[in-house]
Amino acid sequence: MSTGAHDMQLVADLSDADRRVVPAFGIHPWAAHTVSLAHEQTYADLFGDAQDDATSTIAHLPARVPLADALAQQRALLQQYPDALVGEVGLDRSFRLPAPQGSPTRFSSLQTPIEHQLAVLRAQINVAKELARSVSMHSVRAAGHTLELLDEVYAADGPHPSTSALRADKDIVLHSCTLSPESIRQVQRKHRQVYVSFSTTINARQRALDAQIAAADPARILSESDTSSDFAAHTRAATARIAHVWHVDEATAAARLAANFSKFHSNDCI
Known about the structure:
Blueprint: H1 8-17, E1 24-25, E2 35-36, H2 43-47, H3 53-59, E3 65-66, H4 67-80, E4 85-92, H5 114-131, E5 135-140, H6 143-153, E6 172-174, H7 181-190, E7 194-198, H8 200-203, H9 209-215, E8 221-223, H10 231-246, H11 250-266
């Protein structure tokens, strides 16, 4: 999965080099600040009057890319790769921009406003609808906004003109899902197009992981690595955790999860 306009082509190149790779093209919330909603918008327009470490951070940021240009690149790549997904996209209310190299702290005080993140996310979901692609969505400390957005996405007429309702067979996966077990039940009961995915790298930090797995619809759950290395080992670890909760052997769990991904990837309606 790409993280922004700067690495979408790298994902395409990786897929060309190894056809086992299913590419996904999207602007991650950690990179949403690099996208401007209108031409010539500056970082000052996004973050307001910055001071101290924030001023230094802004000075080291790359030039902003107009959203229309980023979406044109995303759309072109999705059309070039018919099996590609939209991702990774989403919302994150905890992320702060990294501080420049040599700073005394790892992260600055800057956080991308949630309203900006929502605008970038809605635009990409609209591309997914247009091209009939499923979506991988990141959501951290944004449960309320996420649930409201899903209601909007799957409503007959959303309140935002840029976001028409997705067709009933277009799916969104909440990856490394951090929603509470009750929220998982609620959202999957309400929206049959919503999947949840779990990783041990992220979700094992939560005491509620087993309860989250148990709360998820067995036909709409996936396992993942959510890491930059040892993909197979980490995915197997997540699969083993799901197998434990399901009280089945790992091979049985793996077969079920593979079938789930095939449905999600092919956009088949459950």
